[in-house]
Each structure stands twice: as C-alpha cells, then as structure tokens.
TrEMBL record:
Gene3D superfamilies: NAD(P)-binding Rossmann-like Domain. Residues 479-498 are annotated as: Disordered. The lineage of its organism: Bacteria, Bacillati, Actinomycetota, Actinomycetes, Kitasatosporales. Residues 153-437 form the Polysaccharide biosynthesis protein CapD-like domain. It comes from Kitasatospora paranensis. It holds the Pfam family Polysacc_synt_2. InterPro entries: NAD(P)-bd_dom_sf, Polysac_CapD-like, Polysaccharide_Synthase-Rel. This is Nucleoside-diphosphate sugar epimerase/dehydratase. PANTHER family: POLYSACCHARIDE BIOSYNTHESIS PROTEIN EPSC-RELATED, UDP-N-ACETYLGLUCOSAMINE 4,6-DEHYDRATASE. Belongs to the polysaccharide synthase family. It comes from the Bacteria.
Length: 498
C-alpha cells in the first residue's frame, strides 16, 4: 500500500463522470492541491469520451470497470461527479469503491455546481485538511477483504455514526453475514434503510440488545456465532460521564467485559475494541473507563493467544469530525443561530480525524493485529480548537473577526492537551506507515483485574458514584480522581467525544 508523507500531493482519486461537472472537478482538484485529492483517472460510459483525457487526466474506462481500475491504479478516493445518477447506481458504485478500500466523495446537484465557479468547493469533506491541520490519511487497504469476506461479522453500537460507517464498509467487503447490534431500534431501522435501500426489519441482521446485559450477549454469540467483532458501543460524552460515573462503568467497562467473555467462549477469530485517546494517562471517568476496557481486552488477548483461539486488540480515536454530536455540528448550529461559539480555553488542543480515517483504522487493526495491541493513527500535531473554529468560519463564508468566542473554562476531567500514548507506553511502528501501536500492560492479566472489577461492578450496580470513582483510582494507579466542579449554564455544550 502506498504510504503518504508530508510531500504527497494528495490522495489518489478516481473521478466518476467526464461530463461538465466531472471535468470542472478535475480542473479544480488540479488547480487547488490543498483540497488533498490528486486525480489519476476518470471513468465514463460515453463511448465518445473513451481513450481521451480531461485536463490531462486520462479516461480509463466505463463505470463497470471501477473495481479493476481502482486496484490497478491504487485508488484511495472515488469522487462521484455525475449529477442525477440513479440512487441505486450511486449505492452500487459506493459499495464497489469501499470494497477495494477506497473512500467515497459526492458532488452535490448539478444546479449548485453550475452556480459556482469552483466545483471542488462543493465536494463533501473535501477541505477537511484545513480543519485537521494535515492531509487526510488513506488508511484502509484492499487486504482487509481477507479478514471480512465470507465471515460472520458483528458490529456493536451499529446505529451510531462510527458504527454505521463501519457497517457500510464491512458490507462492501463481502461478509457471509453482517449483524448490526444496537439498543436503539430507530437507529437500526435507519441504518438498514441506508445500507440496503429498504428496511423490512424481518431478517437476522438487526439485533436489539444492550451490551450491559450479560445473558443476552451470551445468547447472541451462541446463536449467531460471529467470527469478527467490532465493538463500537459506548458512552463517550465526557462531562456527562463525570456526573454519572456508574453509567460509564456499566457500558464501557462491564459491556466490554461481557463481549470479550462471550467472544472467548464462542471462538471469535478477531475482536477490535474502539477506545479513545483519553485512555492515555486518563484524568476523566471517560478515559478511565476506556483504559479499563483496553486492559480487559489486553489481559484476555494474552490468554487467547496462548490458547490459539483468537486475536483481540483495540484502537484509540482522536475527536472524530462529522460524528454525531461532534464539535463541527455544534459549531454549525451556534454560527447559524448567531450566538457566540463556546470554547473551554484559548489554548486547548485536540487530535482530530475524519470518520473515514476512524473506520479505516478499525478495519486495518482487525487485519494487522496479532493480539493485545492498541493501535493509534498518526494524526500529526494537535489542533487548537480556536484555530479550528476560525478555519471553519472561513469555509462557511464568515471572517474570523465575525465569530464571537466565549471561553468557559476546562470542565472536570478535561485536559488542556491530549496525548496518544501514556508516558509508560512505547510507540511501535506497524506495516502501515501512518499507524502505530503499543503493547504496554503485558503484566496486566485477569488475575490482576478480576477482583477489582468485581468490586467496581458492584459499586456501579448500586449507583454509588463516589465508590465508583474510588475503585477506578485503585484499579488505575496514577489516575487522578477529579474534584466535581459546577458546570455553568450552556458552558461548552459540544461533547468532547472520540
């Protein structure tokens, strides 16, 4: 797989459509390299356009050749630029693109394209590089197919923004069955409609369950016998979990424990936990609960590896742009309403990644893992939230001087600056040039955790929040239990999530 460095001109992009919109898009991508997409070819069904070029970019074939062309030219992004293309064909092309590890971008309506000089600026997420302070990284490779194809795959938290994108990409790699688990039936209905174009709710692909429910999880694993599990279900809103730590333990720690136990009992081949950078030297209940989830996976991975029964690993996300309830969505709402944008501190920084990068990291972790690793995407330097706000404002045609920012102060458990690895963790390279791993915690086994977890679960079951905080501190040496602080009304309403 090609590695992307700082000198790269952008992700290798295949444009679908050599008409007016596609030609304008190619022109704009060539003219504006900061968009981060480098066109390498065009596909079009018009015989008159065969063997021609668009601004020097060759027409490589018809739409039916997407898969073979994408593989031959190491395509990382497929840009759909044929206005009015039937929805079913759009879905088929997107599925084909995902099936070879390519991300998909969509051009809006032809009418809006005609009204603007730069068509490229209409491309969804095309200018995300300006927000995250680096070029977007192409993560997932076609080799992921070897892990997914022909296997029974279970995704927990399937109705969420990360889980739903995971389901879409997993489906493109040809699993024998895709089981989508969530406790919210409306989310599952919407997800099935998006993936299949219909949602009759009459098959086994949708599973209503709560990961906290141990007997239910065990039943599901016995009945469905998943071979690959991607565990995305979690509580992730930092301020809420500071106020309700028992709920964090029930979902993030006990829920993970239930899934790992069921996976071991039924011979799951690969298990990937989705964690957060807040698990590195945690100072919040969110980070502590996710660190314990990592340790549960790590401890059981050692036993699974010794027994040759499965591969268990985890990934850490930064803040995911575009995920449900993310900073961008709240920024857009605050700017739309004309109110001030709330930021906790003028110097606060965070690591950011796109949904495509996040899902790609999960899939690549499933492919690369040998057991017990925690994988992290190289997200470059952390981004000042204030800088992101100003960049976002400019992209929606507002000047930085037009944005009023109100600083509210860091909330309980929040760090001024996040880290991707704990101080005691070694950053190890992987076969992917932009993914790193750590194997810290080799000495953490079930015998070290079991007693402490039992007491933690008992405290959470009794909703004894102070006891839960104390137990978290006992289980995680170095974790500082923050003093509860009153949160001012409307202070920083955006969730500081993954």
């Amino acid at each position: 797989m090609p590695k992307q460095g700082a000198g790269d001109t952008g992700l290798r992009t295949l444009v679908i459509g050599a008409g007016a919109a596609g030609s304008a898009l190619v022109r704009d991508l060539l003219r504006t390299p900061e968009f981060g997409l480098a066109p390498v070819g065009v596909l079009d069904d018009d015989p008159a356009k065969a063997n021609r070029s668009v601004d020097g970019v060759p027409v490589l074939g018809t739409l039916a050749a997407l898969t073979t062309t994408a593989v031959a030219h190491r395509v990382q992004v497929v840009a759909l630029a044929i206005p009015g293309l039937p929805h079913q064909q759009v879905r088929a092309l997107a599925t084909a693109a995902a099936g070879v590890g390519a991300a998909v971008r969509y051009l809006p309506s032809f009418l809006s394209a005609l009204r603007r000089e730069v068509v490229g600026s209409d491309m969804r997420s095309l200018d995300v590089n300006k927000l995250i302070g680096r070029h977007e990284v192409h993560v997932v490779s076609p080799d992921v197919r070897a892990v997914i194809e022909g296997r029974r795959v279970l995704v927990t938290g399937a109705g969420g923004s990360i889980g739903s994108e995971l389901c879409r990409q997993v489906q493109a790699f040809g699993p024998s069955a895709l089981y989508m688990l969530d406790h919210d039936e409306s989310n599952l209905h919407r997800l099935q409609l998006e993936i299949w174009g219909e949602a009759l709710l009459t098959d086994d692909s949708l599973v209503i369950a709560d990961v906290r429910d141990r007997p239910r999880i065990q039943q599901i694993f016995r009945d469905l016998k998943p071979e690959v599990v991607f565990h995305a279900a979690a509580h992730k809103h930092l301020p809420l979990l500071e106020r309700h730590p028992s709920e964090a333990v029930k979902s993030n720690v006990l829920g993970t424990d239930n899934l790992v136990e069921a996976a071991l009992a039924t011979g799951v081949e690969r298990f990937v936990l989705i964690s957060t950078d807040k698990a590195a030297d945690p100072t919040s209940v969110l980070g502590a609960s996710k660190r314990l989830a990592e340790l549960i996976v790590r401890a059981n991975a050692r036993d699974a590896r010794n027994l040759g029964t499965g591969v268990f690993s985890a990934v850490r996300f930064g803040n995911v742009l575009g995920s449900r309830g993310s900073l961008l969505s709240v920024l857009a709402e605050q700017l739309r309403s004309g109110g001030p944008v709330t930021v906790t501190h003028p110097d606060v920084t965070r690591f950011f990644m796109t949904i495509e990068e996040a899902v790609g990291l999960v899939l690549e972790a499933g492919r690369m893992a040998e057991g017990g690793e925690v994988f992290v995407l190289d997200m470059g330097d952390p981004v000042r939230i204030v800088d992101l706000v100003h960049n976002f404002a400019r992209q929606v045609q507002l000047g930085a001087e037009d944005v009023e920012i109100r600083y509210t102060g860091l909330r309980a458990g929040e760090k001024l600056n996040e880290a991707l690895f704990s101080e005691g963790e070694e950053r190890l390279p992987t076969v992917h040039g932009r993914i790193f791993a750590t194997l810290a915690g080799e000495d953490a086994g079930p015998e070290d955790l079991a007693g402490g977890l039992t007491a933690l679960y008992a405290a959470a079951a009794g909703n004894a929040d102070d006891e839960v905080r104390r137990r978290l501190a006992e289980l995680l040496p170095g974790y500082r239990t923050p003093e509860p602080e009153p949160v001012p009304a409307l202070s920083a309403p955006y969730p500081d999530g993954f």
